[in-house]
Design brief:
Helices cover about 40% and strands about 20% of the residues. It has about 500 residues and is of the alpha/beta class. An eight-stranded mixed beta sheet has the order 3-4-5-2-6-7-1-8, covered by helices on one side. A seven-stranded mixed beta sheet has the order 11-17-14-13-12-15-16, sandwiched between helices. Strands 9-10 form a two-stranded antiparallel ribbon. α13 links the parallel β15 (about 390) and β16 (about 410-415). The chain starts with a helix and ends with a helix.
């Protein structure tokens, strides 16, 4: 200890209470977690503050944002884990301690929710605790002091709005997007697309400094195609902090500032003092596995699958281990266009031996009409013994069949009955019975993505890959190898079918 502090402590002017208050103030300025602990009686009066490591982790990520180390951040975390209080309410107020000129724009799925967060931020600033410690740092302006927008005398701003709300003429240094979609509308494609469009066309243009400004997205996952899914799929350069309620695999988490590490073993709970195993199991039963997987596990489909179960995907083969094949076909699901929001084209090669279907090959990408035609030709050249080329009678399918039927034999239009989900459910007995075989991932790395698509179906962005596979299975199971040509194959191609037998 320095001689100055030794003399001060020994002097009559020394006041232990004042020193402790100064230490607490300094800790709150340095640590957002400590700031929230001290502000808790203002934020949640009469409620006990429960410590947990995940709040310290989020705090360090936000500290890294303020240090300029992170400019784009996604935090996926279950509900009721202090995400809004931490990021949307407290973080902007804490930032104003050292940078009162910062301008914040806060966005939620509803104006009332976003306004509530902004009011609570203002309540903290107005509290005796905050004013006693930092009241000299800035003052709120009387002429701009509304619930949805207030400013300080350093031109700092906190403004709240909703997805689709007005931001005319306003810009921010930090944009916080807190739950852009109502969980009650998780399955609404319209609501999902509205939040994505607002993000793409409005929010991204509202940063005062596009290079150094910050966008923070904090939300629970609702669907593979929600805002988080869009941002990650487009590779927009976001740092992704994902915290499932129950660890599904061994994961080591490194804190960005302190470099402290925490290892979560499979089954470890994120916040066991508030959400123990009994509570989580009850939520899983009441919510259903699909909703629980998105909101609490941050995977918009349960790990075990929705319609297709993971335990049904264990049969694998290598090309050397294949039995004699009696039927070999292609199965295609075409798209209309190749664009950002378009479906993918999916083309499978499937073979059948006895009661088993073997998935041999896959073409799967967004394609133009010309690219789709080339893909059919390519797969036909690669697998010349494939008899029928089954093409769904939708999108570009009929046009492609019409174009290629005189060039490639066996072009068959397939008119599906029922919805994609109904058709998928109709083939689940074949999966459950072990009749569907997958290639060894060492020989066909694409099989991992295929299994993922099956597990998240029908909640995934691209349903067409699963639909093309289901179509091929239905076609094969309806065409036993001991019979003649399929009853719905055109007369034009019956001679080809007989010639290949």
């Amino acid at each position: 200890m320095s001689s100055y502090w030794e003399s001060y402590i020994r002097s009559p002017a020394f006041d232990p209470g004042t020193l402790q208050a100064a230490i607490r103030k300094e800790k709150a300025e340095r640590s957002l977690s400590e700031f929230i602990r001290q502000a808790w009686p203002v934020i949640e009066p009469g409620t006990e503050y429960i410590e947990n490591w995940h709040t310290d982790l989020i705090s360090e990520y936000l500290q890294a944002v303020n240090l300029g180390q992170i400019h784009r951040l996604i935090v996926n975390i279950p509900p009721r884990h202090m995400k809004s209080i931490h990021v949307t309410v407290s973080y902007p107020v804490w930032t104003w301690l050292r940078a009162p000129a910062k301008r914040f724009i806060k966005v939620s799925y509803s104006d009332s929710l976003s306004r509530k967060h902004n009011i609570l931020s203002r309540d903290i600033i107005r509290s005796p605790w905050y004013q006693e410690n930092w009241g000299d740092r800035f003052h709120l302006k009387d002429d701009v002091n509304r619930q949805n927008e207030f400013r300080n005398d350093h031109q700092g701003m906190m403004m709240s709005t909703s997805v689709g709300g007005s931001l005319t003429g306003e810009g921010g240094d930090v944009i916080i997007i807190d739950d852009p979609q109502n969980p009650l509308q998780a399955n609404s494609e319209t609501e999902r697309q509205n939040s994505i469009n607002f993000f793409k066309n409005t929010l991204q243009t509202r940063l005062n400094d596009p290079k150094n400004g910050t966008i923070i997205i904090i939300m629970q996952r609702l669907h593979e195609s929600d805002l988080t899914g869009y941002v990650l799929s487009e590779n927009l350069g976001y740092t992704h902090l994902c915290m499932p309620a129950e660890a599904e695999q061994r994961t080591t988490i490194t804190f960005p500032i302190s470099k402290k590490q925490i290892t979560r073993e499979p089954g470890d709970l994120l916040n066991p003092s508030r959400f123990d195993k009994e509570v989580l199991d009850a939520l899983k039963r009441s919510m259903g596995s699909a909703q629980y997987a998105g909101q609490f596990q941050q995977t918009p489909a349960p790990a075990e699958g929705i319609i297709f179960k993971r335990e049904w995907m264990n049969n694998t083969f290598t090309e050397r281990s294949l039995p004699h094949q009696s039927i070999l076909i292609q199965s295609w699901d075409m798209a209309f266009t190749k664009s950002e929001g378009s479906a993918k084209v999916a083309g499978f090669v499937l073979s059948m031996a006895g009661s088993n279907v073997y998935i041999r090959d896959l073409e799967n990408d967004k394609m133009t009409f010309t690219e789709s035609v080339a893909a059919v030709r390519r797969l036909t050249g690669k697998w010349p013994k494939a008899r029928a080329k089954v093409v769904e009678n939708k999108a570009n399918g009929p046009a492609i069949v019409d174009l290629l039927k005189k060039e490639i034999p066996g072009m068959v239009e397939f008119n599906p009955k029922g919805s994609k989900e109904e058709r998928a459910i109709s083939v689940t007995p074949y999966f459950e019975a072990g009749n569907i075989w997958f290639p060894d991932p060492k020989e066909a790395p694409w099989v991992n993505d295929l299994i993922r698509d099956l597990l998240i179906f029908p909640r995934g962005t691209f349903k067409d890959t699963t639909d093309a596979l289901v179509q091929g299975i239905l076609y094969l199971m309806d065409k036993p190898a001991t019979t003649g040509p399929p009853k719905d194959i055109s007369t034009t191609h019956q001679s080809y079918w007989r010639g290949q037998r």
